[in-house]
């Protein structure tokens, strides 16, 4: 409340966050202005509630062979709404209907890595991350697409040749390696001399 009648000695404060400690001060005021604030009250914690905010910035990718790496921004403590806070990570191969779910019990954890030999390189997965605490499950983030780890090139370029162009320049050429987009993104070639 903004201003309370001078004959009232209690009030109800609303729109507070669940499971957060608050302390209060009271200031007496009149037409001249406000006086000094009181000493703070004892700290009072609001009751627990189901989490209301899912993680943001859900993404991922990278990692090692046969891995699906999922990342998110952790929920700050003041928005966890209770004890026993954690994350529910759900994912499925793109185009399938059944979600695979796992629980991450640490509230500060920003990632989950799923390892399985059956994961094909650079495969798209639908991913969402939800929240829970001792009061129940909260909402999930919106679904985003994350690719499994890429596969390193398994063959070397062929047909490598070099021709001198001047006293300080040599032109090197090679045939492109056969590359499937299903293995990842070919970023480039590295040329070394010895």
Descriptive account of the structure:
Residues 1-49, 54-151 form the Fibronectin type-III domain. One of its GO terms (cellular component) is plasma membrane. The chain is mainly β. Among the domains are: 59-147, Immunoglobulin-like (Sandwich), CATH 2.60.40; 152-193, no CATH class. The chain is built from no helices and 14 strands. It has strands at 21-22, 27-29, 34-37, 44-45, 56-60, 67-73, 86-93, 100-104, 111-115, 124-133, 136-140, 144-147, 158-164, 170-175. The strands form five sheets. Strands 7, 8, 10, 11 and 12 form a five-stranded antiparallel sheet that branches. A hairpin with a 4-residue loop joins strand 2 and strand 3 (34-37). It starts with 20 loop residues before the first strand and ends in a 19-residue tail after the last strand.
Q: Notable features of this structure?
A:
5-stranded antiparallel sheet; Immunoglobulin-like; 3-stranded antiparallel sheet; mainly beta; 194 residues; elongated
Overall spatial form: elongated
- Fraction in beta strands: 35-45%
Secondary-structure arrangement, i.e. CATH architecture of the domain at 59-147: Sandwich
Order of helices and strands: EEEEEEEEEEEEEE
Helix percentage: under 10%
Main beta sheet: strand number and arrangement? 5 strands, antiparallel
Rg estimate, integer Å:
29 Å
Question: What would the CATH topology of the domain at 59-147 be?
Answer: Immunoglobulin-like
Total number of β-strand segments?
14
* The CATH top-level class label of the domain at 59-147: Mainly Beta
> Cα distance, first to last residue?
77 Å
Relevant CATH superfamily of the domain at 59-147: Immunoglobulins
> Helix segment count?
0
Average pLDDT for all residues: 92
Q: Tell me the structural class.
A: mainly beta
Model regions low in confidence, pLDDT < 50 over at least 5 residues: none
């Amino acid at each position: 409340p903004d201003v309370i009648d001078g004959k009232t000695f209690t009030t109800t404060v609303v729109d507070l966050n669940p499971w957060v400690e608050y302390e209060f001060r009271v200031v007496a005021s009149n037409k001249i202005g406000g006086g000094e604030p009181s000493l703070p009250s004892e700290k009072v914690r609001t009751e627990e509630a189901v989490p209301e905010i899912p993680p943001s910035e859900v993404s991922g990718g990278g990692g090692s062979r046969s891995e699906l790496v999922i990342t998110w921004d952790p929920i700050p403590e003041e928005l966890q709404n209770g004890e026993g806070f954690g994350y529910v990570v759900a994912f499925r191969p793109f185009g399938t209907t059944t979600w695979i779910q796992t629980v991450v019990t640490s509230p500060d954890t920003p990632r989950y890595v799923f390892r399985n030999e059956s994961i094909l390189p650079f495969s798209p997965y639908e991913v969402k991350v939800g929240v829970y605490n001792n009061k129940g499950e909260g909402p999930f983030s919106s679904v985003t697409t994350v690719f499994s780890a890429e596969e390193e090139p398994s063959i070397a370029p062929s047909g490598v040749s070099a021709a001198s162009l001047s006293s300080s320049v040599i032109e090197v050429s090679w045939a492109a390696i056969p590359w499937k987009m299903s293995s990842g993104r070919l970023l480039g070639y590295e040329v070394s001399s010895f």
